[in-house]
Structures are given as C-alpha cells and as structure tokens.
Amino acid sequence: MSERADKIEVENPNTPGRTERLDHAKYEAMRDALLPVLPDTPPGLKVAEAKEALLPHLDKKLFPGGAKAGWWLKAVQLDLEAKKVIARADGSPVRLYRL
C-alpha cells in the first residue's frame, strides 16, 4: 500500500480549511467503533461514556489495551463533527450524537 493510501485527511471544525493526515487504518477502526455506539438523538453520550462503550469493539492490534484510544477518539470526533456526521448537544459536558 502506498504512503498516500496509508493516510487519511481529517478536518477540525475549530480550524476550517485546515487538514491533517492521519493513519487510515486507525482512523477507520475508531470511526467504525464510535458511530454504532452513538445515539441518533440528543443529548447523546458523554465522551467518556462513548469511549467506554467503544473500547471492546476496537481492533486489539491497532489499539493494544486501548492505548491512545482517547487521542484517536478526539481526532475522529472532530473530523466527523466537521463533516456533519455527528454533533455536540448544547451545554456541558460535551455529549455526542449521530446526525
């Protein structure tokens, strides 16, 4: 697989127009674990609740013992928010749901 295919460009709703290149396999694994655990109506799940719910579904080779899952969850969360796939409910703490 080429280096280009190994990476995926992700967005951040806080910095429109700027992208970062991240590991494609880890991104997809996190996205595929996150989306099914999120409800499709507000208020959604707290980020910590979403992380707890998705950990058992992560690829153990990519995330041994859940290593770096929090960082990848945040990266995928921000990208999916920028792409309008998920949203934050109003208020605090941050709660996520699918659109």
As residue ranges, the low-confidence spans are none
The H/E string reads HEEHEHHEE
Q: What share of the residues does DSSP label as strand, in percent?
A: 15-25%
| Fraction of helical residues | 40-55%
- Straight-line distance between termini: 33 Å
What Rg do the Cα atoms give? 13 Å
- In total, the number of strands is 5
Shape: globular
Spatial ordering of strands, largest sheet = 3-5-4
- Kindly give the count of domains: 1
Structural class: alpha+beta
Count of helix runs: 4
Largest sheet: 3 strands, antiparallel
- Average pLDDT rating: 95
Describe the structure.
By secondary structure, the chain is α+β, with helices and mostly antiparallel strands. It has helices at 3-6, 24-37, 47-54, 69-82, and strands at residues 7-11, 19-23, 45-46, 86-88, 95-98. The chain has one domain. It has four helices and five strands, in the order H-E-E-H-E-H-H-E-E. The radius of gyration is 13 Å and the shape is globular. The mean pLDDT is 95.
Question: Layout of helices and strands, plus pairs?
Answer:
Elements (H helix, E strand, L loop, with lengths): L2 H4 E5 L7 E5 H14 L7 E2 H8 L14 H14 L3 E3 L6 E4 L1
Antiparallel strand pairs: 1-2, 3-5, 4-5
Helix pairs in contact: 2-3, 2-4
Please describe the structure with a list of short key phrases separated by commas or semicolons.
three-stranded antiparallel beta sheet, 19% strand
Quick structural overview:
This protein has 99 residues and is α+β, with helices and mostly antiparallel strands. It has 4 helices and 5 strands; from the N terminus they run αββαβααββ.
